[in-house]
Amino acid sequence: MNFTTPERQFTQVDAYPTRLHDGERLSERLDPVLWSEWHEDAPITRAEADHYRDKGYLVRKDVFSPEELKLLVETSAHLREDPSGIARDDLISEPESDAVRTVFRLDAHSPLFDRLARDSRVAGVAEFLLGDQVYLHQSRLNYKPGFTGKEFYWHSDFETWHAEDGMPRMRAVSASILLTDNSALNGPLMLVPGSHKTFIACQGETPENNHETSLKAQKIGVPQPETISRMASELGLDAATGPAGTIVFFECNTLHGSNGNITPDPRSNAFFVYNAMSNLVGEPYAADRKRPDFLANQGRPVPDPIAPVTGEIRKG
Amino acid sequence: MNFTTPERQFTQVDAYPTRLHDGERLSERLDPVLWSEWHEDAPITRAEADHYRDKGYLVRKDVFSPEELKLLVETSAHLREDPSGIARDDLISEPESDAVRTVFRLDAHSPLFDRLARDSRVAGVAEFLLGDQVYLHQSRLNYKPGFTGKEFYWHSDFETWHAEDGMPRMRAVSASILLTDNSALNGPLMLVPGSHKTFIACQGETPENNHETSLKAQKIGVPQPETISRMASELGLDAATGPAGTIVFFECNTLHGSNGNITPDPRSNAFFVYNAMSNLVGEPYAADRKRPDFLANQGRPVPDPIAPVTGEIRKG
């Protein structure tokens, strides 16, 4: 696709004030959800595009070949079992153990996952959804072990990316590529369909170095339980389940969370956040300092846009 | 049904030694599962009886009328919201708050739930499964709130009842009557089908007053993760989901647990443990002192057998 990326804009005005002193505030989303018109050559069906626009997420199964999937799973296991080559800042452990929970800058630590991040089945879809060239705002490998996998409370990613990373507008999408089978019982990603249409400005100032604790258990930038209750009761609740290889695209403002997991079955996924080149991050809107690069890619001087790659993912 | 309850037996010999010094040990179950022959007048179908025998549990839906269910739900809400009349020993709160998690001796605190415990659709089925007159070993109302409901790790109830309550043999069954809809996402009871056929003798001596902490998070009397992994991988994993009013019968030695729950939907159930009159508890097999009466009903001098009651459950 060809895009004329407009000048960076919006950064002068804070379109979504949050981390408020005086309480939570709900407002209507100001941005489009689906930034392209659907057309015959689009990388997803019209029904899929409509679902993403209306619900704020899209689950795609059977996207990769068995050989591709095997390679991705093996490579992810290797990264987790031998994280010795990975910088300490790029690793997050479980709250109550040293088990690796997250490897950040996944594309930098693995040529294979770098290739996956550029794959047209992932980045090409992100380009279409965002109607722009895209770059990786964040990339990581998540690993939620069996038996002791902890819950992650309801939140909108955009609220944090806006407040703490300076992402101006809602023009980003996450792609989660499941590397294990994910059932309703082993802590799947749960989403509130349609919640992406409302911005929940959260109460509470951002503490210094908030990300050092928020990555383990988020306390700031989360909606009130009453708000989640009301939205879930109006809009329902869905779980993005599927076999390994399933891709879950979810819009940056869709409310999501996951339960803990006492089953023996671990949950693992590769997670890529695509942001539009027209939506580059600037100064945080509601934090004193920017978060580190592994959380919010700044680029030098700006990040490189991705040129989506077609064809089979192979070892090499 | 008419039963000739045999003399109390077995108590001289410990048929299921547990809380071992030198490690965990698996052995075959020594007792029948289904203690009655199925017959035309049985309170469950032949397929249900077979399922219970083979899997160790049975889920029955649409048992109560809407009016009965409404009455049960309202009464449970009242007990929870106003627990002031309930003895402190009979109340358990969430680990990190004062919210009521459990009301013990439910039958003593509510005439309506006492009636439920005697209902032929519950106690009558228990009689059939155990092939004997039954009494209430334990009865309680469980309440797992939305958002913060904690997980409960895998365990066999019998292991604890044997070790800490002196229950001689596997001739007891629990009935959980759901008082809220229970989906796979809000922390349902999960079971390992067929696990009731194996006794897992657990490692570790019983600490004094173990029940004071084990009711919030059980540490002693739980199988090793590797054992649960192996059994779940061989036998699978099931979740007892259903609308409010569903009854889940599960055999005393069936491995079960539940995940935490960040969804807004609470989970609540009435829980009755029926033990066979021929299986009265004696001295604990692996603890210094008996647990209190609210956990293990001793009776005066023995508990009264239940005479199952037919007909509609009504207010009054």
Automatic annotation (TrEMBL), chains A, B:
SUPFAM superfamilies assigned: Clavaminate synthase-like (SSF51197)
Per the record, what are the reactions this protein catalyses? L-ectoine + 2-oxoglutarate + O2 = 5-hydroxyectoine + succinate + CO2
| Chain residue ranges for the region called Disordered | 294-316
Domain of life from the UniProt record? Bacteria
Q: Which Gene3D superfamilies match?
A: q2cbj1_9rhob like domain (2.60.120.620)
- The enzyme class is oxidoreductase
Listed A to Z, the keywords are:
Dioxygenase, Iron, Metal-binding, Oxidoreductase
Under InterPro entries, the record lists:
EctD (IPR012774), Phytyl_CoA_dOase-like (IPR008775)
Which EC number(s) does UniProt give? 1.14.11.55
The family assignment reads: Belongs to the PhyH family. EctD subfamily.
The protein's matches in PANTHER family, at most eight in alphabetical order, are given as: ECTOINE DIOXYGENASE, PHYTANOYL-COA DIOXYGENASE DOMAIN CONTAINING 1
Subunit and partners: Homodimer.
Q: What name has this protein been given in UniProt?
A: Ectoine hydroxylase
This chain's source organism reads Pseudooceanicola nanhaiensis
